[in-house]
Amino acid sequence: MADFYQNGIITTLHNINRRPLSELEADLCRFSKQRPLGLVLPSLYSELETKALPNIVKHLQKVPYLSQVIIGLDRANLDEYQKALAFFSQLPQQPKVLWNDGPRLKALDRELKQRGLAPEQLGKGRNVWYCFGYALATQKVQALALHDCDILTYDRELLARLIYPVAHPSFQYKFCKGYYARAANGSLNGRVSRLLVTPLIRALKKIVPDSEYLEYLDSYRYPLAGEFSFRLDVLSDLRIPSDWGLEIGVLAEMKRNYASNRLCQVDICDVYDHKHQDLSIDDEQTGLSRMSIDISKALFRKLATQGTVFNDGVLRSLKATYYRMALDFIESYRNDALINGLNLDIHKEEAAVELFAQNIIKAGNHFLNHSMETPFIPSWDRVVAAMPDVFERLVAAVEQDMQDYSCPIKRAV
Questions:
Q1: Tens digit of each residue's pLDDT (9 = 90 or more) over 11-25
Q2: Distance (Å, rounded) from C-alpha 296 to C-alpha 201?
Q3: pLDDT for 345-372, tens place per residue?
Q4: How many CB atoms lie within 10 A of CB 407?
Q5: Whole-model pTM?
């Protein structure tokens, strides 16, 4: 059974007495009459061919309180887009599929790029950004959740608990972050969060004492969780990174825009497992290696906006402090794993820490050498100010794609 301890400066909503799903969903059906609810699913086409996404869709078919489901589809050709339309048509919520690689959305993206308003790189951040734009354009919901499409242990209770804090009419939360234990198949997982993010934040707190921002980040039990929920109005002024710094970037934006008592985290499931990334020791452009660099850069950028000065000496001190802390954490995780009957490979843990320590320096050097970089995607408020008809064009492109290609007979047109 979960504890009830409140740590840090944001509210933690626990799973104390295993409230039945039927009760949660009954509440959400009532809430949705006052505050319509939606869901965003950023997906690669390849995820349709895994075990995870078909199971997610099977569970979502039974969700009674959603007014809108928005799917951002990446890396799909025409044939694959049509298959995706058929696949997601199983959902009773009349889902909308954004074909991000289709000619209409690519044409809109090119025009935004010409104005300096589009995401600079492909990836989850870009996918999520366009989905948020579609939600703002249609105004069909007042609150929505987002979760990944590779969750192998998915159950619809995850969604119910995730969206509940922003759906409840008497709660004042604008943003909610899901958390859970990363343990599955007899192993303790979540290496980037355990071995990079937490010890790096703790090391930064020694170098930047009395930082409310670092205290805020350290309040999240699983800061890299890909599960969020928001009130819709939050999305208008949200600036997010387009790289692996997405989750940390979103947390930074929430802190920038809202008081801590408008933010919370919620325990959404007992068991969570998803697609695992390789450590990629020999390739810093992929896997956990790239993720660690992008996350570190996101932290450095945010602290720099608050007046923290980084230089070679600070980076060397940070690396040494981080390395010692991370090694100490390994011992704690090892003992935690043993008491729970889980496996933890000390050699692999230390290899990950060594890689992350090197990548902290690489991220720091990149930050110092690219001071004019603009890593954030512009907010939708800014985009609309520069292109007032962008929402109408986005909705029209999505609707026309679905109308033209939903019927297999039109494939040859």
A1: 999 999 889 999 999
A2: 10
A3: 999 999 999 999 999 999 999 999 987 7
A4: 11
A5: 0.93
